Amino acid sequence: MIEPDEDKSKEKILLKEIHHRVKNNLNIIIGLLELQSQNIEDLYVKEMFRESINRIRSMAIIHEYLYRSDNQSKIDLSVYIESLADNLLSVYADNKRELLINYSLDNLLVDFDIAIPVGLIVNEVVTNSIKHAFLDKEKGRIDIALEEKNHSISLVIRDDGVGIPVNFDIKNNKTLGLQLVKLLVNQLNGKYKIYRDNGTAVQIEIPFIEPTNK
């Protein structure tokens, strides 16, 4: 007769192996896209490849996190967000300007189906700030705040960059990044706002009930 603890141990090992294999498969895809992008001369297409690679990498990071974690079902959103943003900063590093990311993150354990969309949202917003907010500035700062309040996850990403142009129509804009943010927030039954005030701020609220420890 197999004891319950033995079943749990086998399940944990299996889940770790699954996350390890998924992470490896995603990294293979990333490698193939990187190789393909080396032969692309069109800078616009090359940048599209890089953005796609970063979206896939955001999913690979979470499988790496779960593979190394003792908890195979919950993700610490603060650790995940910081890993994502640090990776983006290294990818888009520019010796011409000094960029800093400041974190104020509560430790929130969430399910996989929350972590993945939130990670993709962070990827889109932070990438946009790094690429566009500081074009005419030697220094820049991005603040990322995460907290749980009133049964909701509050995520605010703010930069002190040049701000969104006045003639930029936020509501009707058709860029892929903003469309993805809208889609992912809706998927989470959340809401978001974009502010133009001494830079740009994106505020996202997502319904959330913190899991109880059993």
Structure commentary:
- The protein is α+β, with helices and mostly antiparallel strands and 214 residues long.
- The chain has five helices and seven strands, in the order H-H-E-H-E-E-H-E-E-H-E-E.
- The protein has helices at residues 4-37, 43-68, 77-91, 112-133, 176-187; strands spanning 75-76, 98-105, 109-110, 139-149, 152-159, 191-196, 200-207.
- Strand 4 (139-149) and strand 5 (152-159) form a beta hairpin.
- The mean pLDDT is 83.
Keywords:
two-stranded antiparallel sheet, single chain, 5-stranded mixed β-sheet, 5 helices, 214 residues, 2 domains, alpha+beta, Heat Shock Protein 90
Q: Which percent range fits the helix content?
A: 40-55%
| Count of helix runs | 5
The radius of gyration computed from the alpha-carbon positions, rounded to a whole number of angstroms, is: 19 Å
Sheet with the most strands: spatial strand order: 2-4-5-7-6
Overall SS class? alpha+beta
How many structural domains are formed by the residues? 2
Average pLDDT works out at: 83
